[in-house]
Write a structure and sequence with these properties.
Blueprint (H helix, E strand, L loop, with lengths): L8 E5 L4 H12 L3 E6 L2 H13 L3 E6 L5 H15 L4 E4 L14 H29 L2 E6 L13 H20 L4 E8 L13 H14 L4 H12 L8 E4 L7
Parallel strand pairs: 1-2, 1-4, 2-3, 4-5, 5-6, 6-7
Helix pairs in contact: 1-7, 3-4, 4-5
């Protein structure tokens, strides 16, 4: 069992399914102690129960990352439960694809609240803890769409993921010694992101596209584990991964 993962306290948002769930299960199997947050507490209870049954350590709290107080409470719970926080995986996300001309303003607002503010709230809640400890690791989930604008339909989603990359790079420069920052940019990975669109034509396209090429969510879990397990003086700043079949 890798000593650079075993025993570390890892907080994961959006942990009730997809990348978050896969990462929680993978890191628990490597000996990490997990604190999981998501809106669906029932799903979190199931995942935590499975981790504990396998001999792992995990806690959970219902968390809406668009509410700063929820994210603060999640980080505080991790500190109370385990005495420290080593890694925060800002994973919660929404992919609501539709052409700009459809003016789906409510969906734009939700993506900004979850994809951008949710990451910022994770940073704001955990950074004082990391500063006090003199160590910590932020892992922010962006997207291939944060490297290249996905259009038509993905302009706003791409905008939020470009923002995650920019925030992560600024954080890397500002966070100070001992704090590591990693941004993960996945392509078409099996997850519930494909269910985020209410525009019928866009939703149909995305589901068909993913169905043909998507790779399992544990692909990202392994990338996250790779970043965590590096020695403390190695900061893996950016990982891009996509299906071999994906052209975009």
């Amino acid at each position: 069992m890798n000593s650079n993962i075993a025993g570390k306290v890892v907080v994961i948002t959006g942990a009730s399914s997809g990348l978050g769930e896969a990462t929680a299960r993978h890191l628990a199997a490597r000996g990490a102690r997990l604190v999981l947050g998501a809106r669906r507490s029932g799903r979190l209870e199931e995942i935590v129960g499975a981790i504990r049954s396998a001999g792992g350590e995990a806690e959970y709290r219902a968390t809406d990352v668009s509410r700063y107080e929820d994210v603060q409470a999640l980080i505080a719970m991790a500190e109370r439960a385990y005495g420290r926080v080593d890694v925060v995986v800002n994973n919660a996300g929404l992919m609501a694809i539709s052409p700009l001309a459809e003016r789906q303003v409510e969906a734009w607002d939700r993506m900004i609240d979850i994809n951008i503010k949710g990451v910022l709230y994770g940073v704001a809640a955990a950074l004082p803890v990391f500063e006090k400890q003199g160590s910590g690791h932020f892992i922010n989930i962006a997207s291939i769409a944060g490297l290249k604008v996905f259009a038509p339909g993905g302009a706003v989603y791409s905008g939020t993921k470009f923002a995650v990359r920019a925030i992560s790079e600024g954080l890397r420069q500002e966070a100070g010694k001992g704090v590591r920052t990693t941004v993960i940019e996945p392509g078409a990975i099996e997850s519930e992101l494909v269910n985020g669109s209410t525009h019928e034509e866009s939703a149909r396209f995305i589901k068909d596209y993913y169905r043909d090429i998507q790779i399992p969510s544990d692909s990202v879990a392994r990338a996250i584990a790779y970043a965590i397990e590096q020695p403390a003086d190695v900061d893996v700043n950016e990982i891009v991964l996509r299906p071999t079949l994906q052209e975009f």
